Amino acid sequence: MKIAAPFDCVEEVVPLIRAGAEELYCGVWAEHWRQRNIFSNARHMFYSNLKDFHQLRSAVKIAASQRVAVFVCMNDYYSQGTLSLAWRDIQEAADAGVAGFIITDITLLHSMKRLAPQCRFVLSSLNPCFNSAMVALCRQLGITRIVLPLSQLSLEEMEGLVTNIHSQGMEAEAFVNNGTVCKNVTGFCQFHRWGYRHLFPSKNRRRYSPALSAIRRISTLLPEGIRTRLGQQLWSTAWGYVQDLVFPCRQEYSLDIQRRSAAGNIPVERKSRVCLEREFARQYCILCAVDTFVKWGTDIGKVGGRGSILAHKLRDVRLARQLIATAQQKSGSTEEFEKAGRDLYYQAYGVTCANKRCYHNGQRE
Taking residues 144-158, what's their average pLDDT? Predict the structure, then answer.
């Protein structure tokens, strides 16, 4: 199983490859998108994207010298007014020599196959594939790899999906790191992506949008490495909190809980400062399932983290690499792998593995 890792600037390419990444992916937020203040992919942060295709060419050249493929994220939905911008990105990325694209909007595939016939196409988990009918459709459309949904399937369901994907001659990709997952279906939730700006107006967005736009504009004048590190640090401090406020599911509300009866609705409880994301989202860790993914023959282990600082990306890649190697070499039981995994987890994060954070807790044989 290969490891795919994200990078946010050209300077991160070599360290990630040395840490064990065998495939890389990134986003590009080019000038023709910035002029319209629209993002070209699902990561709506300037520091989690390259700022032009010249940087992409440099990254592809460096990665190619190490025989590492680079994929570009175009994992958002595109309106009639932005399709021409997306087509321009496809053409420029293909000319830069990328191996393929990670996509959400399957309506792009027809133009992608025309503009970049040599490239491969990966279905993002933001357009989740849950069954054999979707797998068959992806095969028919020319998709070559499917990223497994992150938070809605049991191990048994994932195994059936991987088997079906392989039977169609495609690759299967699974996340192999820890983070936060929401109970809502990623890709379908209108709180999360394409609908939130128009469906859920926010006074916080109006209040902070000018400042955030100014930071984005200033960032384009900075050297690449400084620009990326500045953004990553801002995100980890107050500005990350401010940007969180523009999403309706990340804001705080007052909630009245009522019980319906024959006499009418009876007030039961009033909650203040309720945040939907805190109610729905939870920390998870999927690392103990790595040996199961290896057993199934999963082709790619995906390390998430676009926008994270480089040290965190390197830590996650090294840990995934160690766990995959342990799973491939082990002759013992699943319990022995989990024990070894907990030791590696502690070495990487400095805290003990907690079962309550285990995504697959209670699902294993």
Answer: 87
The residues with which 5 forms a beta bridge, in sequence order, are 24
Helix axis angle, 224-235 to 203-219, nearest 10°: 160
Instruction: Decide: 22 and 41 in contact? Cβ < 8 Å.
Output: no
At residue 242, does pLDDT exceed 60?
no
Q: How far is CA 66 from CA 20, 70, 303, in A?
A: 11, 11, 19
CA 206 to chain centre: 27
**Angle of CA points 349, 67, 169, to nearest 5°:** 90
Better-predicted residue by pLDDT, 362 or 248: 248
Amino acid at 46: F
Judge contact between 31 and 78, C-beta under 8 A: no
Check: CB of residue 277 under 8 Å from CB of residue 151.
no
Tokens of residue 225, six digits: 């490495």
Evaluated on CA atoms 333, 297, 43, 192, the torsion sign reads negative
Could you tell me the domains of the chain? 2-177+286-357 (3.20.20.380)
State whether residue 346 is helix, strand or coil: helix
Q: What is the structure's pLDDT at 336?
A: 84
Q: What is the pLDDT of residue 67?
A: 97
User: What does the radius of gyration of the chain's CA atoms come to, in whole angstroms?
Assistant: 21
Residue 335 confidence class, pLDDT cut points 50, 70, 90: confident
pLDDT at 107 over 60: yes
Contact 202, 251 (CB under 8 A): yes
CA 261, chain centre distance (Å): 44
| C-beta separation of 61 from 67 below 8 A | no
| 147: amino acid identity, one letter | V
Residue with tokens 């990326």: 228
Nearest by Cα to 27 from 4, 46, 3, 2:
46
DSSP letter assigned to residue 303:
P
Report the pLDDT value the prediction gives residue 186, as an integer from 0 to 100: 72
Give the CA diameter of the chain. 74
